[in-house]
UniProtKB/TrEMBL annotation:
The lineage of its organism: Bacteria, Pseudomonadati, Pseudomonadota, Alphaproteobacteria, Sphingomonadales. Residues 40-220 form the FAD-binding PCMH-type domain. Keywords: FAD, Flavoprotein. InterPro entries: FAD-bd_PCMH, FAD-bd_PCMH-like_sf, FAD-bd_PCMH_sub1, FAD-bd_PCMH_sub2, FAD-linked_Oxase-like_C, Oxid_FAD_bind_N. Gene3D superfamilies: 3.30.465.10, Uridine Diphospho-n-acetylenolpyruvylglucosamine Reductase, domain 2. This is FAD-binding oxidoreductase. SUPFAM superfamilies: FAD-binding/transporter-associated domain-like, FAD-linked oxidases, C-terminal domain.
């Protein structure tokens, strides 16, 4: 795409407002920012990294006045074209430098810049014995609070406290005009009149760019127990997960099938990880004898927890003291009795010790390309979807085998009412600039590398679309909608009209992340 006089003018204006070091408009870095984990789009006109909220407002105002499309980007570890634009010519807003953390213990709230990573937030709050209710996805070493709120996500803390959107008190959003909108006029509660905060959760940045997010604070529960169970059928596993989620005994739990447990997850339990686990177990154990006993149990377990059943589910329960954690674990065992069998707990122990693992899983365990596809199902659709999905894969299996494509599945509760079913799709294909920049030469030099494989990529894309369509047939909802999942097609005429009116009011020129959510 040729650079126009208008493009040159806006780049110059942005450099003058933010400083030349905060604007990227040439070079290889633009190629990196044209990729997410899954797809490559056209290069942005420029990437800006404002250092303050005020500079973010100024940059947005300049782009708005020039009629330039604006696309916000969080930590970058997404895979639904949320910040990838096929048309190119946009200004990409990297909010990573807006990373202040203000802890207000008296009012039990923390105010985060949109670029704060969940890992850095946890470190800051750990020092004070505090946490947020939802405290990050597994990718929290890179994922930002602003990105997670824009996309909706789940993992740590979800069983009891819900997804990312449910742990937001209020936020400040920069609108397309450059104006700053605060979503609540009360410090004490999000729910003061209509829920304006909820309007900006899961919006993928189509209504504005997140600037600051306020989250409630809770005391850390210092004691914990980890439990794992194996199941021989998906139906038994789902029944156990549903019962556990309804009881809300655990802080978080997740399930894996055999393929994913031995592949992507198993790879992370190398010697370095095991040594770290050992150190953390002894440091965090209620007493040293209990810690040593746990280490011995894990040593005898070996690799068995990763192949103990067709499906395995892993729980982390927390308590204010040893008795509370033990009681919750006892209740959970009683609840799951007859559905599965308890196995060694090395996997959730690993996750508790390393909640935010390095982003090695943006490639498969054999260096393959990777993309997850998920749906949030009502419980009465979960088993039926599983059957439909397996039938779909069976119809593709011969073509998949020929091209070296394979899958694994993982699962998570979404409160007591929803069940997240996630398919991990792997195929042999060359890396992109995203992978080389994110993982670095040292790591990648030790991994297999594939040549360009358009046939495998085409089938992976076909499979992805077929899996999404199958989710839709079973009424699934989705997080991280971006440009990948259907949204407006599911709305009633009244809801679609209201959403369009809000978009027009907040962004009359349609410059905020055009194409996302179907806009």
């Amino acid at each position: 795409m040729a650079t126009t006089a208008n493009d040159t003018t806006i780049i110059g204006a942005l450099e003058k407002a933010l400083g030349p070091d905060a604007v990227i408009s040439t070079g290889e870095k633009l190629e990196y920012f044209a990729n997410d984990v899954y797809r490559t789009g056209e290069k942005p006109l420029a990437v800006v990294r404002p250092a303050t909220v005020e500079l973010l407002q100024e940059a947005v105002k300049l782009c708005g006045e020039a009629g330039i499309a604006m696309v916000p980007r969080g930590g970058g570890a997404s895979y639904t074209d949320g910040y990838v634009r096929q048309e190119g010519g946009h200004v990409l807003f990297d909010t990573g430098a807006i990373d202040t953390i203000e802890i207000d213990e008296r009012n039990a709230v923390v105010t985060c810049g949109a670029g704060v990573t969940w890992a850095n937030l946890k470190t800051a709050l750990d020092a004070k014995g505090l946490r947020t209710p939802f405290w990050g996805p597994f990718s929290g070493i890179a994922a930002t609070v602003g990105g997670s709120v824009s996309q909706n996500t789940l993992s740590h803390g979800t069983t009891i406290h819900g997804i990312s959107a449910q742990s937001v008190v209020s936020m400040d959003v920069v609108l397309a005009s450059g104006a700053l909108l605060s979503t609540s006029s009360s410090k004490a509660t999000r729910f003061y009149g209509p829920d304006l905060t909820g309007l900006f959760t899961g919006d993928c940045g189509v209504f504005g760019v997140k600037a600051r997010i306020r989250l409630p604070l809770l005391p850390v529960l210092p004691k914990f127990e980890c439990l794992s169970f194996a199941f021989d059928s998906f139906a038994d596993y789902h029944a156990a997960s549903r019962k556990a989620a309804a009881a809300r005994l655990d802080d978080s739990h997740f399930g894996l099938d055999l393929a994913l447990s031995q592949g992507q997850i198993g790879r992370q339990e190398g010697m370095g990880a095991r040594i770290k686990i050992a150190a953390d177990i002894l440091r965090k154990a209620p007493n040293k004898l209990k810690g040593v006993a746990q280490l011995v149990k894990m040593a005898f377990a070996g690799e068995n927890p990763m192949r103990a059943g067709a499906y395995m589910c892993h729980f982390i329960v927390e308590g204010a003291d040893d008795d509370e954690a033990a009681l919750k674990a006892k209740q959970l065992r009683r609840l799951l009795d007859g559905l599965g069998r308890e196995i060694a707990n090395s996997i959730p122990t690993f996750v508790h010790s390393v909640p935010f693992a390095p982003l090695f899983n943006v490639l498969g365990p054999g260096g393959e390309r990777w993309v997850p596809i998920h749906g949030v199902l009502a419980h009465d659709e979960a088993v039926a979807f599983d059957e439909s999905f397996k039938a779909l894969i069976k119809s593709y299996q011969a073509r998949m085998d020929k091209l070296g494509i394979w899958i694994g599945t993982m699962f998570s509760p979404v409160g007591s009412t929803g069940f997240l079913y996630e398919v991990a799709l792997y195929w042999p294909e060359d890396r992109t600039a995203y992978h080389t920049t994110t993982l670095g030469e040292e790591y990648l030099s030790q991994q297999p590398q594939f040549a360009a494989n358009p046939d495998a990529s085409a089938l992976a894309d076909e499979l992805k679309e077929a899996i999404v369509a199958t989710f839709q047939k079973h009424g699934a909802g989705h997080f991280q909608l971006g440009r990948a999942y259907p949204y407006q097609q599911r709305l009633s005429a009244e809801a679609k009209s209201l959403l369009g009116a809000i978009k027009t009011e907040l962004d009359p020129k349609g410059l905020m992340n055009p194409g996302a959510l179907g806009f």
